[in-house]
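debug: dumping io for the single-chain case to check the tokenizer round-trip. Nothing else runs in this session.
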Amino acid sequence: MVDFPRSEAEISSVWLSQVLGCPVSVQGSERIGVDEGFTGGGLIRIILEDCSMVVKLSPQDVNLRTVFAAANAREVTFYQLSVGRGLPVPACYFGAFDAENGASILLIEDIDTQRSVSFLTGCNVAEIREVTQVLAQVHSAFWDTEVAKGLPALALLEEFDFARMWAGYSAKVAKLLPDVVLPERFVALGDWLAGETREIFMRMMVGPQTVVHRDAQVDNVLFGEGAVLLDWQFMGRGLGVHDLAFFMISSVVPEVRRGIEDAVIAQYHGALGDNAYTLDQCRMDYLFGAIWRLFITVMATTQLDNASGHKRDWRRADLVRLIAFFEDHEIGSECF
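debug: decoded output
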């Protein structure tokens, strides 16, 4: 068993001094956020004598920790890969994962001076531009590198059986969001994906490979002098523009998205600096990103804790925006 704190009470001055390599004294701690996140993990701000840091712990619930063990391991791996690359992510001072029980810990930079944006409100044009730029920065840092090629591409398909989740999705939506009606075309698309999940996602992997976030939505972004990307649990290898699509679908109200979408895709493509990857291909790959968004939406609706009123409102906004994207682009199985 790997030795590190599993709970807030176990985070001591002695442990922190050991991992930081210098003596520090814990003055106090506070939990960040009213709810634990959808995946059940905890964020704790550790207050030291002259600064503060954030500790991210895996879920205390054994079943939830088991479900997200691979995700916790991936996030630790990402922060280890990010060291020294100057990426728009928090600095990481320590990370560890225990394969025996799925527990993990991250000790990262506290960027509490940055501001968050409400998922329900969505991003404005300036914020969209900022996120587009930092996504391109991360993707270009790993663009067609051996590091990216060495990461798994479709691990989430092994961890979460889409066909099984989809079978219970409509009933789950009816219970959580009785006012939302799933369009027939949307249901048909889900049926198609459930029948050929791996084959469809394999087709989506053709193109330049990079490190992708796979949960690039505004709850995982902080804004200040520049945007900072958080929560890398679903990271892996894939096409970078899928992250952009994910963000535009989930974190931008449809009225705003429709007015800026083409310009944002062009901005992202230009920031990559790869002349061999055409803008037309980038636009086509962008549409494919909606399939990843559907996968994650179904997983989150059927597998995560959505009991609170805030989380139900979150699920409603997410689904309504996804349906609008499919309708705006007339996306059906025939498109792929």
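debug: round-trip ok. DSSP finds 13 helices and nine strands in the chain.
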